[in-house]
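Hi all, a correction to my earlier message: I attached the wrong file for Low molecular weight phosphotyrosine protein phosphatase. Here's the right sequence:
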Amino acid sequence: VAKSLKNHLNLVSIGNICRSPIAEAVFRKLVTEEKLEHKWRTDSAAVSDWNVGRSPDSRALSCLRNHGIETAHKARQITKEDFQTFDHILCMDESNLRDLNRKSNQVKDCKAKIELLGTYDPQKQLIIEDPYYGNEKDFETVYEQCLRCCKAFLEKYH
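and the right structure:
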């Protein structure tokens, strides 16, 4: 099997309608701005199956639009194949990390490096809190964290 020329990044949260689609859209925009689309395959997924097929939260979409970013993402649950095809699976909090590590242990040839997206935050904010029960300001905080982390991650792996 030929090694893919692309790096594969999957961003994961509990439901794939708030944090992870924001992170995915932010990373895509950075990759596009750096003219690196040909080098990256980017996706996002959920640990749970609660929102499969749903669009991102309207507040997440509104936040992204405020920053000039559109997304047509539909929520999906992470699969065994994700652990075999993605180089990096970055998640938002310790609960996601525990769930992903548990799931990855059931996959024979897991190649994904599983980490917290916040590991890359220059401001050292390790956890990206779920804004679902919050307000627009909380979504903006998620956006800013994702932007910092994604920039630092891209710099490291570009």
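Sorry for the mix-up. The chain has a mean pLDDT of 95.
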